[in-house]
Amino acid sequence: MVKVNLKFLSNEAGEREGLADAGIETFRDAPYASCAREAGQNARDAFERLPVRMIFNVRLIGAEELPAHEELVEAVTAALRESIQDKEIEFFRNALKVLRDDRIPVLEIADFNTKGLVGPPNTAGTPFHSLLKSSGVSVKESATAGGSFGIGKNASFAVSDMQMVLYSTLYSVDGVEAFAAQGKVKLASHTSADGSPRRATGYWGNPDSFAAVIDVGAVPQWMRRTDIGTSIFVVGFRESQDWAEHMTASLVANFFAAVQREEMIFEVDGGRIAINRNTIEHLLARDDVQRAAEASGGREEFQFAGQLLTCLMSPNAQSSEIAVPGAGLFALRLLIQEGMPRRVGFVRNGMYITDNLKLFNEPLTRFPGSREFVALVEPANADAGEFLKKLENPEHNNFSAERLPSPQTRAVATTAMRALARKLREAIKQSTAVETVDSVVLDELGQFFAAGGRRESTDLRASRDPETYVYSPPRPAETRRPPQQTVGGTSGGKAGSGRSAGGVRGAPGPVPGGGSGGAGRRGPAESVRLTDLRNTIQREAGAPASRRTLRFTPDVSGKVKVRVLATGVNVPESLRIAATDRGEVTPEGFDVDVEAGHRTVVNVTFAEPYDGPIEVSAMARDSEGTSA
């Protein structure tokens, strides 16, 4: 059996290498979120069957269980001795403290239903070799795969207090299972105990040519696998009290589409947090997960992920396809709904990428004149997926044509992406353009128009056409006297449910009356103030517009009478309601229960088609009056 150990590369040239590795520093701002995102993406790309299952657990191991513990302590001590910068000194002192504890925390990230890191591990060009010993090399079976084992593989080092990561994998070649394991540590250049100069990078494994271990018996029990797949072990895990919530926030915000489609499932902290299709909505609303997202600076994107998930799941969302020459076919899913942010999200391979195309001068931030909406865009065929992959940056959060090597391909990509943005705007505008607006009948302005200015229309239908307006001064309101009672009684009756109680004494009849009194006049109606009134026409292909969605906020609680009137004509006319999904239809409109200060949404169907502007009024139900 080969004795495995930790060995650092020799440094014959005496180059000075500091602790600040560029690849690791990329993920320092949000290390937990980055680690979860990058690991999830690589597992999704290596799937054998769906759903891909991933676990994130912390285990505590004794110093004697950690491979090459003594060599690691020696290397960290040497690096500390030669450090000059305060940041490096602090890092290596903390690393030694962790290594000298009785129990060392190790984060295990394991995937299942994947192909594993296919080898041979010591052969250049294989996925295993690419992960451990390649830089800027993409080795993926699919041209649409999300990552490249490039800069993203450094995310795991960012959550290690000694920047050390171990890998083990079980994969199959022609039906025969094979095992491989190796580790990598990134410290700083230093001088070993025997006086030889060493570089910052060291490898744990077979000391012969820094090779991987292929004998499963040569590695600790906790590193072995029984199922095909890959395990990543972050040694000296920088464990915080809410690490699990931080990683959960990243997983649900980035992989909501893959989870909802049952392409991926996750288990965090020993299964304490389960992320699957049944829990994804709940996790996006959990306070502790939201706080973790906010602490990582991702509160807005976390909220946006929930809105995109609603778009993905809603039966009211509209689906269409957009063909872009030079790019491929894209799927657009659009949900028009109050409270949505008027934003577009791009998803690829089940992972959220960005909400803009700003590097193509298309930020997609302003949609004037549109109703509130959220849109989700993703490749609809392999050509579009491969096209976007070529433009995706290493952090997987934007697209840029500058990543392409030649001016010709950059020009073609820029033209295609701008065409995609233009077609997206056209599709969104066509579906979300505001067709109706609130109207207010201002009869009191009629006094400012001369009587001779009246315009008569020769079209007999003009009086019913909401687009034709006839201006005329208002007539003085007639004062009607209440009719005299003709039935005798001893006294006036009390008002119904109105606020005035005085009745009119009945007139004397031909014979003495035997009743208790005549009926009095009803009191004035109690009007209900409706704020933030909105109405939306519900159109169906080939059918006339007869359905509306009404939204308003009342200032009272209880049952109210609602009337809907057609405006834009000379005199507003009541629209007869045939059906409603809330309340009860009445001859004047409909009755509905409301709560003061709370938004009320009602879908109504008119007895006759009408797509013009409307006016909505309401009054308290116990007033028994009417409102114009």
Task: Give me the secondary-structure topology.
Layout: E1 5-10, H1 22-25, H2 31-45, E2 52-62, H3 69-82, H4 86-99, E3 103-112, H5 127-133, E4 160-173, E5 176-186, E6 190-191, E7 197-205, E8 229-237, H6 243-260, E9 264-268, E10 273-275, H7 280-285, H8 287-295, H9 299-313, E11 318-324, E12 328-336, E13 343-348, E14 351-354, E15 373-379, H10 382-391, H11 407-432, E16 527-528, E17 530-538, E18 547-554, E19 558-566, E20 573-574, E21 577-580, E22 584-585, E23 590-594, E24 600-606, E25 614-620
Parallel strand pairs: 2-9, 13-15
Antiparallel strand pairs: 1-7, 2-3, 3-8, 4-5, 4-8, 5-7, 6-7, 9-10, 11-12, 12-15, 13-14, 16-25, 17-18, 18-24, 19-20, 19-23, 19-25, 21-24, 22-23
Helix pairs in contact: 2-6, 3-4, 6-8, 6-9, 8-9
